[in-house]
């Protein structure tokens, strides 16, 4: 079997081995995928050790997504845009760094939730690594508007500036939470607030009737953000679909075939 793994610290609770085992079984590919705990100061060495053992590729999670940029010999456009790498591909031409997080999010919104991004008003909460990773894939779907709101407005402004030309005239802008104006068809929580059971201070009026609210976090219970969005009439969705979709994108990068994600998402949902 061809070997792959996910590097992280901690890594014990990663669902990626189960997801990739399901994709391998479904596609008939002989793939072995394991978890690897890399020491916080030993990521690059862990990658080299895995390559020496015959590894063909790896996923990268917290806290190594920035370091993985440096480990790569070349980056895909979407990894450059994200400034982070979640997928490494070990090829004859060296280590290619890719990022499938944004494509995974967009695939979950468009294909699984059935919500178009094209022509819609999108509000992105947060301007850290998680937010940065999804801006390019969102803009590729040509939203009417993309507002990036963050506690630290300067970070959101820098992110908006980076993608302003790509979005088109007046499409991408930045603001603080208090300055969020109007209603949005899609509101994405890319802040780390849910981790601490906190709510980013988004106004309830930000959710247009029938809006989709998506939290990148997931768990057995809905996050406070999703509870809040729901109370303001939004349709809610957690980050489990994004997780399954970013894995499918990585599988496609490595194996050349995109697996069917629906049965895997359904089965993971049942295990939460
Ligand atoms: P990640 O890689 O998960 O995005 P990060 O780069 O540390 O992590 O970014 C965390 C994001 O969550 C930032 O946008 C942060 O806002 P600031 O830039 O103003 O710090 C946001 N965040 C974290 N806790 C938050 C909270 N309680 N309320 C609102 N935003 C929060």
From TrEMBL:
Catalysed reaction, written as an equation: shikimate + NADP(+) = 3-dehydroshikimate + NADPH + H(+)
Membrane spanning stretches: none
Keyword Ubl conjugation annotated: no
NCBIfam families (alphabetical): aroE (TIGR00507), PRK00258.1-2 (NF001310)
Start and end residues of each Shikimate dehydrogenase substrate binding N-terminal domain: 6-88
Protein name: Shikimate dehydrogenase (NADP(+))
Chain sites annotated for binding NADP(+): 126-130, 216, 239
UniProt GO cellular component terms: cytosol
Pathway: Metabolic intermediate biosynthesis; chorismate biosynthesis; chorismate from D-erythrose 4-phosphate and phosphoenolpyruvate: step 4/7
Highest taxon above the source species: Bacteria
Keyword Amino-acid biosynthesis: yes
Ranges of residues in domain Quinate/shikimate 5-dehydrogenase/glutamyl-tRNA reductase: 116-194
Lineage, top ranks: Bacteria, Pseudomonadati, Pseudomonadota, Betaproteobacteria, Burkholderiales
Protein source organism: Duganella phyllosphaerae
Active site: 65 (proton acceptor)
Role according to the record: Involved in the biosynthesis of the chorismate, which leads to the biosynthesis of aromatic amino acids. Catalyzes the reversible NADPH linked reduction of 3-dehydroshikimate (DHSA) to yield shikimate (SA).
């Amino acid at each position: 079997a061809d070997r792959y793994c996910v590097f992280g610290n901690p890594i014990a609770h990663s669902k990626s081995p189960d997801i990739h085992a399901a994709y391998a079984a479904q596609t008939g590919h002989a793939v072995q995928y394991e978890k690897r705990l890399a020491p916080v100061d030993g990521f690059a060495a862990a990658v080299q050790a895995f390559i020496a053992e015959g590894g063909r590729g790896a996923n990268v999670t917290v806290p190594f997504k920035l370091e993985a940029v440096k480990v790569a010999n070349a980056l895909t456009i979407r990894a450059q845009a994200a400034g982070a790498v979640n997928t490494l591909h070990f090829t004859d031409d060296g280590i290619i760094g890719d990022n499938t997080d944004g494509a995974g999010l967009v695939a979950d919104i468009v294909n699984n939730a059935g919500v178009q991004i094209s022509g819609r008003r999108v509000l992105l909460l947060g301007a850290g690594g998680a937010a940065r990773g999804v801006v390019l894939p969102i803009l590729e779907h040509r939203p009417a508007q993309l507002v990036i709101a963050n506690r630290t407005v300067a970070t959101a402004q820098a992110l908006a500036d980076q993608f302003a030309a790509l979005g088109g005239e007046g499409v991408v802008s930045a603001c603080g939470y208090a300055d969020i104006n109007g209603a949005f068809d899609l509101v994405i929580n890319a802040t780390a607030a849910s981790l601490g059971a906190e709510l980013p201070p988004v106004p309830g009026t930000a959710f247009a009737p029938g809006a989709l609210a998506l939290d990148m976090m997931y768990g057995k219970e809905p996050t406070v953000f999703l509870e809040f969005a729901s109370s303001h009439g939004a349709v809610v969705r957690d980050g489990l679909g994004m997780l399954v979709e970013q894995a499918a994108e990585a599988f496609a990068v490595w194996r050349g075939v995109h697996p069917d994600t629906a049965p895997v998402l359904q089965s993971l949902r049942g295990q939460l």
